[in-house]
Design goal:
Length: 227
């Protein structure tokens, strides 16, 4: 599933975040790259230990917890503390696949990367290039979203960021381990939940059909979820 999620951040949250990030100290992104992606990666990144990265990451996690579309699509078990990158001056990230397992720095926690997320923080009109290109069974999909919007895509996919030839592309990126390991199961639960939401709006939460389908949904989650 490749899912754009609009308005993860409000305009106020976004402008505050951009102010803090524009004033932060950025380092070469290769410092945090694995052996394979080191050759592929040409960008800047906030150090994971930077207080600004941690504070802004917390705000993003709060925003995600409030976002029903994100929770419904990802059914998150663990979320990697959000990281931040910046592409400018021709910077790019050549085609690669994300590592399957990530340790959360400073903790014994490891997560399996089921979903990758990019939260766009720059106005798309303010830079040229910087498209996120994702290879899917239906061909290459190109993603460049408004600031404050996020895309979720399978961590199993090959993807790249095309060179930024003008301006700067600032984004947050992170990974999610879902309670539902199988992408097919997760996609069906998402479709079911979204349909229940529509029915509930039309008929009210106490409608018998809504109650029955909600029970089916929760019983499927009970059957399929790892917690
Ligand atoms: Ni990647």
């Amino acid at each position: 599933m490749l899912l754009p999620i609009p308005n993860i951040l409000s305009p106020d949250e976004l402008s505050h975040m951009r102010e803090a990030l524009d004033a932060a100290e950025w380092v070469d992104g290769r410092e945090t790259a694995g052996a394979q992606s080191r050759e592929m990666k040409h960008n800047l990144q906030l150090p994971e230990s930077s207080p600004i990265a941690r504070e802004m990451g917390e705000r993003i996690l709060d925003a995600l917890a409030r976002n029903n579309l994100f929770v419904s699509a990802a059914l998150p078990l663990r979320i990697f503390p959000p990281l931040f990158n910046k592409y400018e001056g021709g910077g790019s990230f050549d085609i690669h696949v994300d590592n399957s397992i990530r340790g959360v720095p400073g903790t014994p926690i490891r997560l399996r990367t089921d979903l990758s997320a990019t939260l766009f923080l720059s106005d798309p009109d303010s830079y040229d290039g910087g498209e996120l290109q994702i290879e899917t069974p239906f061909g290459t999909q190109e993603v460049k979203l408004p600031a404050g919007d996020m895309v979720l895509y399978p961590s199993s996919s090959l993807h790249r960021v095309t060179p930024v030839t003008k301006g700067a592309r600032v984004a947050s990126f992170f990974w999610i381990q879902s309670m539902i390991r199988s992408p097919e199961d997760r996609a069906m639960l998402f479709d079911l939940d979204q349909t229940i939401q529509v029915l509930a709006q039309e008929n009210g939460l106490n409608d018998a059909k809504v109650l029955n389908l909600s029970a089916v949904y929760h019983n499927l989650v009970r059957r399929l979820a790892e917690t």
